[in-house]
Write a structure and sequence with these properties.
This protein has 192 residues and is mainly β. It folds into 2 domains: 54 residues, OB fold (Dihydrolipoamide Acetyltransferase, E2P) (Beta Barrel), CATH 2.40.50.100; 108 residues, Beta Barrel (OB fold (Dihydrolipoamide Acetyltransferase, E2P)). A hairpin with a 3-residue loop joins strand 8 and strand 9. The longest helix has 4 residues. The radius of gyration is 18 Å and the shape is elongated. The C terminus is likely disordered. Bound molecules: zinc ion (ZN). The site of zinc ion has 8 residues, from loops.
Length: 192
């Protein structure tokens, strides 16, 4: 199975295998334990490290690199870290998204106790890639213009807006906390 896959031409969305066989590398995405190709190219299996990746034949693939500015949708928030679906890298849309990780120590210039005070699921963040040595790129939202650029109420899903220094839901008036980007607001630069 693994030998047959190595060198094979694959297209986005093509099933490559399951995580029990190998971990998803560059150009692949894992969904519920299944590894799919995220781009058109040639599958490469590293049987020593048990990693499958897909290399494009034409031009370098758009993948997050150290220093890349990214836009991501917060998928999951734990006490000290968040999982982020990176949808834009340096202005290029990723289809499908690439998973990134934001640790609380890289999330804010201030000390934050809980990741939920920084961002919540469905929020849109702007960040930078600081480390791609691991399978999942590590992100930071410490810098200028970094942080949440669009936020949604954790109670009803309504959009949160700033009135003065208070972040409030437009629908249910719930007040919440976030690590907001400097340009947060209706005029924020949010990709469609
Ligand atoms: Zn609400």
């Amino acid at each position: 199975m693994i030998k047959k896959l190595d060198g094979q031409f694959v297209v986005p969305g093509e099933k490559l295998g399951v995580v029990e066989e190998f971990m998803p590398g560059r150009g692949t995405v894992e969904v519920n334990g299944t590894v799919y190709s995220s781009q058109t190219g040639v599958a490469a299996v590293d049987s020593n490290r048990h990693i499958v990746s897909v290399k494009t034949s034409a031009g370098p693939p758009v993948v997050p690199e150290e220093g890349s500015t990214i836009i991501g949708v917060v998928e999951k928030v734990q006490e000290k870290m968040a999982i982020v679906n990176i949808v834009v890298v340096d202005g290029h849309k990723l289809q499908p998204p690439f998973t990134g990780m934001l640790h609380i120590s890289n999330s804010s210039p201030r000390f934050e106790r809980f990741m939920g005070d920084v961002c919540k699921p469905n929020d849109i963040i702007r960040g930078k890639v600081i480390d791609v040595s691991q399978r999942i790129p590590k992100l930071t939202t410490v810098g200028r213009d970094m942080g949440v650029i669009k936020a949604y109420c954790s109670r009803c899903g309504g959009e949160l807006v700033l009135s003065g220094r208070i972040l409030r839901c437009t629908l249910c008036l719930n007040v919440e906390r976030r690590r907001l980007a400097d340009d947060f607001g209706p005029g924020g630069n949010v990709p469609s």
